[in-house]
Design brief:
- With 241 residues, the protein is mostly helical.
- It is 93% helix and 0% strand.
- It folds into two domains: 178 residues, Orthogonal Bundle (Helix Hairpins); 52 residues.
């Protein structure tokens, strides 16, 4: 699997999840928590793919090592067969020498086959190693992005809570403004003033009635004095001083 396809798929999943969460978000904290979970799961998937790639690399390296070992082995066998052929030919036994030369050729063919195999495996291992390095680098960047996401999540949740608290304060202030009790207090105060005025009026009425009673009493005393003086006049008594 190519590095771009592995990490690209992670990026597509992340973007898809982000868009879906933003569109349906009701609770910012839950949305961000889910985003962190999805990001973590996608990274884990990419880590599995990277681990598989690295595992394949190790297998290629093992096969290449085995192929190189086989090259050395058959090279040694070819040399040994060729040397034995030379010894037999020097000893005057050309027919046996030819047999060992044929064995040397067989060994050389095997050596060439393993050399080709080792060359192919080396090339594949090099490509797989480069891909593994790219995947490791990409994963490290994704892990760093996840840490940034976690930090951003904490910051945004804190800001969301502050904004919510401020909104509640504003709503409370608006409600208090709509339900302003000042007018009710003013009406009650006016009612009390009317009651106080009524009491004063009653006091004035009571005071007026009392004055009239005292005025009547004075008039009665004056009439008694008049009657007394009249009686004195009729009886010839001196007028009271």
């Amino acid at each position: 699997m190519a590095q771009s396809s592995i990490l690209g798929r992670v990026g597509q999943l992340i973007r898809a999840n982000v868009n879906a969460l933003i569109d349906s978000a009701e609770d910012p904290a839950k949305m961000l928590d889910q985003l962190v979970v999805d990001f973590t799961n996608n990274i884990a998937e990419a880590e599995d793919a990277a681990a598989q790639t690295i595992g394949n690399l190790r297998l290629l390296e093992d096969d290449a090592k085995e192929a190189h070992g086989a090259v050395d082995e058959w090279s040694g066998k070819a040399q040994a067969a060729s040397k034995r052929a030379d010894e037999l030919r020097a000893a005057g036994n050309p027919s046996e020498a030819d047999k060992f030369d044929e064995l040397a050729k067989v060994a050389i063919r095997r050596q060439l086959s393993y050399e080709e195999q080792a060359k192919t495996l080396d090339t594949q291992a090099g490509q797989q190693s480069a891909l593994a390095d790219q995947l490791k680098d990409g994963l490290n960047k994704l892990r760093a992005k996840r840490e940034e996401l976690v930090q951003k999540r904490d910051e945004l949740v804190s800001r969301a809570k502050m904004a919510q608290a401020q909104a509640q304060v504003q709503q409370t202030m608006q409600s208090a403004s709509v339900l302003d009790p000042t007018s009710d207090i003013a009406r009650y105060e006016e009612r009390v003033r009317r009651q106080e005025a009524q009491v004063r009026g009653m006091q004035e009425v009571s005071a007026s009635s009392l004055d009239e009673q005292f005025a009547t009493l004075d008039q009665d005393e004056n009439e008694a004095e008049v009657d007394a003086r009249l009686a004195a006049l009729k009886g010839g008594s001196p007028t009271p001083a």
